[in-house]
């Protein structure tokens, strides 16, 4: 991991002070710092972009910064691929996931803040049922959402919960390593693609020989990764990973679509037995402006869900199955989660409506109108921690 902090000199003007820029991002509780030529450094705070009061960046500013924070291996990777992912530490400021890329022939950076301390499920205001999911003995748990929805933070909280409650061997394969875990009850080995292993594929070929009880794959990017994750989950391991999907239904469809049509029946059968849960996240701005709260859709693989996944003749009916499992299994839809945050005063009606999966039904329910057969908004009081002051960090 590279260490950075010295200002990058700019030819013919005030030097660009990278440590000052990234320090301002942290002071504002921002999640990201974006650097590109011709624009002042820009931070993302509570999902909104804001330019810092600094001079627009010059090509030489970012070229010098790259030379300071990148290792020779990262420089070589960037030269070959025109983009690279890695993590850096800035003394006295924090750790950051970093992406360098090119735009219009010049360098650009995106830095994502990584907290030193891994927060718990409850500190992140996530539903407590996630603690139960984390302690399952085997199966595949997928955490999904768009970029910046808090997938990595939620996964870190799940691993942290295992670390404090189970004596197991945990192997993670990440690109790059973000949150640092220290052994408590568990033995945790964190492997970074590029520095600890040549590639995801290389690490996956050997991971089952490293005696893991729990495996974390940073992201499922291809069929080979998915295949290994499913087989590991089906052979008695607990496997965590992420997908860039928006809800449980799309997640299951995406998993099936990785495979050619003639394998769909086989994969449906494997998924129906290997899957433990799908947790989908959306970060919603708090009404008081103090950060964001997580709206979470949670699908638990019950017998009814497994039957629906397995039967290739039937369309997926995940929303109804989530509604049926709210009370018994702790499942919840996005709209149930948003309704609870709205009722507790954490988010505004406008924000809840904007992030709802079915805005028209949400609006009717919020106004007190619902049919006798409507189970979509079964109360989920106690399943998420509204009203607390902690902010969710994406």
Question: What can be said about this structure in brief?
Answer:
With 394 residues, this protein is α/β, with parallel strands linked by helices. The protein contains 15 helices and 14 strands.
What's the number of extended β-strand segments? 14
CATH-scheme architecture of the largest domain:
3-Layer(aba) Sandwich
User: How large is the share of residues in beta strands?
Assistant: 15-25%
Major sheet strand order: 1-5-6-7-2-3-4
Describe this structure in words.
This protein has two domains: 10-114, Beta-Lactamase (2-Layer Sandwich); 129-366, P-loop containing nucleotide triphosphate hydrolases (Rossmann fold), CATH 3.40.50.300. The chain has 15 helices and 14 strands. The chain has helices at residues 18-27, 59-69, 72-81, 129-134, 151-165, 200-207, 223-234, 248-257, 264-274, 303-310, 318-324, 326-329, 334-343, 349-355, 359-366, and strands spanning 2-3, 32-36, 42-45, 48-51, 83-90, 94-103, 106-114, 139-144, 169-174, 187-192, 214-217, 238-243, 275-285, 292-300. Helix 14 (349-355) packs antiparallel against helix 15 (359-366). The two termini are 21 Å apart. Mean pLDDT is 90; it is low at 5-12 and 386-391.
